[in-house]
Each structure stands twice: as structure tokens, then as C-alpha cells.
Amino acid sequence: MHSTRIIAAILVLGIAVCVIIGPTYLETTRGELLISPTAEYWFGTDSLGRSILARSLGGMAASFGNAIVVLFGAIVIGSLMAIISILQLDKKVDQAIILSVEAIRAFPTIVLVLLFAAAGIPNTILLILFFWTSIWRLLRNLLAIQQNQPYALNAQLFGMLKPQVLLIEVLPNVWSSVRNYLPALLAEILSVQTALEFLGFGVTLDEVSLGRLLSEALSLGFAAPWVWIPSLVLLIISVSALIWLNLTLSENQRWIPLG
């Protein structure tokens, strides 16, 4: 398992380097159209003469940055909804949340996302509204278990209100378990987001992203594979690194499905 930690750390570090140097260090210079990899252009150029290396790293930075924003939004909304459910100020509210989550999760992820994307909802908002359910489901189960533990009951006996107990005592204790599953959730977000971009949702013609770069395979195919293969490799490496990181973090945790 130590080798898994090392591999995961190396891959995650590589992703971080791409995100940092992609938009700042490499410049997209123009050269000849569709040049195969050379000493000057390591990954060749695209149909407009732009460096594939620069565009791939820039696309990685853009897609990964958007996925992190979605993850943060999902954490905020999912945590809030989980606390509301556990407080049970009104059981009808909890039942409404449960029915909403079940309705969302009843459909295959990509099908439901495509339906709402076709309605013109921005990708970031759309993905947040979908993936908060994963955080809610996991956190609600953990809070429900921990709120009946002796330390939580003792806090209430000392005069703390139930919302205070959840926020101050219980939530910090369960957060480590939630944190361990965030890499897997981020990998799923990145995959779905790339699929939307590949199909043309949420990105304009002048924007760069992994999905947008992969869509060039539809027009160029194997006539110029160097245009889209780097983006595909970056996506596979990113998702694999996040999954390995998830396995490393959760090796000592009891497995709880994300939904």
C-alpha cells in the first residue's frame, strides 16, 4: 500500500503542476497547421497552428479548476441539507429532501445532466445541483450515527443546543470520513463535466477545456491523433490519480457508497 501512496502522490503532484503552469507559463504560439510532434512543438499543433502541449495543459487547468468549484459548491449545499435533515425541525422537510434526492438519483447521471444542459443551465450550476446529493447522503448517515454517541449527548446535557452540538462537536468528528471520499467524487465530477464539454455544452468555440479538445477527434480522427490524444491521456491520468488517492485515504475507513 506504500507504493500506492507514492504513485498517488506523484500523479496528484503532476496534476497540480499542469494546473499551475498551464495558464501561466506556457504560451499558445502559432505555427504551421497540423504539425506532427517535433523538437519545437513536442505534441504538434492543431488545425489553427496552436501548440497542443500548451492547449492540453491549459485545458487541464480549466477543467480541473471548474471541477473543484463544483465540488466546493456541492460540499456547501450537501452539508447544509444534511444538517437540516438531522435537525428534523420539520419531518416533512426531511422527507422532501429525501424524495428530491431519490428523484435525482433515479436517472442515470449523464442522461439527467444532458436533459438539464439542453435547457441552457450553465455546467457549473448544473453539476452542483446534481452532486450535492452525494455529500448529503454520506454526511447525513454519519451525523445520524454520531449524534447519539456519548460525547454528543453529554454536550446537550451541559446545555448546548442540538444545532450547536452538530456544528461544534459532531461535524468535525465525521469530516475526516467525508474528506476521504472527496477525491472519488471529484473524479466523477471531472468525468461528467468532460463529457458535457465533449458534446458541446457549456463551452464556447474560443474556450479551451479537456472536453473541447477531445471533441476535435470527431473531425480529425486518426489523421492527426496528436491533437486529441494528449487530452485523453491527461484525463485518464487525472481520474486514475484521484481514484488511487481515494483508495489510499479510505483504506482504514468503512466503505460507504456515495450513491
UniProtKB/TrEMBL annotation:
Keyword Transmembrane helix part of the UniProt annotation: yes
Chain segments annotated as transmembrane: 6-26, 64-87, 107-132, 225-245
Main location: membrane
Alphabetical keyword list: Cell membrane, Membrane, Transmembrane, Transmembrane helix, Transport
Gene Ontology annotations of biological process type: transmembrane transport
GO cellular component: plasma membrane
Stored Pfam families: BPD_transp_1 (PF00528)
The keyword Phosphoprotein appears for this protein: no
Membrane topology: Multi-pass membrane protein
Coiled-coil annotated spans: none
Domain ABC transmembrane type-1: 60-245
Compartments where found: Cell membrane
Protein's name in the database: ABC transmembrane type-1 domain-containing protein
The organism of origin for this protein: marine sediment metagenome
